[in-house]
Amino acid sequence: MPDHRLPPLNAVRAFDAAARLGSYVEASKALHVTQPAIGRHVKLLEDWLGIQLFERTSRGVNLTPAGEKYHRKISAALQLIIEAGKEARPKDAERWLRIMVVPGFAKRWLMPRIETLRHLRPGLKLAIEPNSTFTEVDGKSADLGIVYGLDGQYADSRAALICPRVFPICTPQYLASIEPVIGPADLVRHELIHVDDGEWWNLWFAANELDIHLNSDMLYVNNDHALSVAESGQGIALANEVLVREELKSGKLVRAVDAQVKLESYRVLTPSAEFSADVAWFIQWLKTELEADFPEAVIS
Q: Boundaries of each HTH lysR-type domain copy (predicted)?
């Protein structure tokens, strides 16, 4: 029987970008993903095909003869797909994807990738609504939602995406100005920034096997706000790796202590009714990109 299996399409997209630009770094910028994510996608495609697509060099990557032949074929196929979509789409049709999402994730992970989404799904218009308090999606105000919380907290959760590691962060200047923080218990001597009445910090301490119970005199409305306060040097906040990856890489923030635990998951909420092909596509894109960016946070 003929083999009708398709290769992993996100891997094909990553390979195409790297082949056109001659660099994993430039491909990662073009697709708004990390350089390691491009490398993992290409390795996945090489394993799927059973051939080597690139020769790695100090200046970037060069196509192997097999890779060059494959790229000619898939680049032509990708262009045909784009043209077919343009021809099939009614000229006056407007397709909106309305996404309700917790603010930290919206600002720090999703928004930098909006241009990539628009290029991947031509004709799809996006409406992003940051919202820190919603617990369900009714299909009227939003087509889907992205929340961050404990298992069982949301009745209409379609799927858990990832469960990232949580750790305390602050500015290097703040950390240098306080007494040395050797372990998690030392944190209580310093200014801790809260997004609730102390529950999240207490949960984090308990996961680190410490019987510490805090109450908060000051709380902020969401994780993004709390992280902005920490970025201004006013104390130590809890953060998950999705929200502060770039800030840690640049040195704007540092970990206050090495301890880290998994507490809550990012999840997709959808209406109870069947959803559109655009929603299904977005959920799959979201899951694939998050798992590529944060492989250690994948839920088995």
A: 7-64
Residue 179 token pair: 């007494």
What's the number of CA atoms in the CB half-sphere (13 Å) around residue 283? 20
Q: How far apart are CA 262 and CA 296, in angstroms?
A: 10
Task: Say yes or no to pLDDT of 155 above 90.
Answer: no
Residue 235: helix, strand or coil by DSSP? coil
Same structural domain for residues 182 and 238?
yes
- Element of type H or E holding 226: helix 223-231
Instruction: Give me the residue label for tokens 């990390």.
Output: 34
Domain total of the chain = 3
Label residue 208 by pLDDT band (50, 70, 90). Answer: very high
253: nearest Cα among 238, 275, 267: 238
Q: What is the pLDDT of residues 39-60, one digit of tens each?
A: 899 999 999 999 999 998 877 8
Q: How far, in Å, are 83, 166, 247, 261 from residue 243 at the CA level?
A: 36, 10, 9, 15
Quote the tokens at residue 6. Answer: 């398709």
H-helix segments, the chain: 9-21, 24-31, 35-49, 65-88, 103-105, 114-120, 172-177, 199-207, 223-231, 241-250, 277-293
* Domain-embedded: residue 196: yes
Same domain, 281 and 150: yes
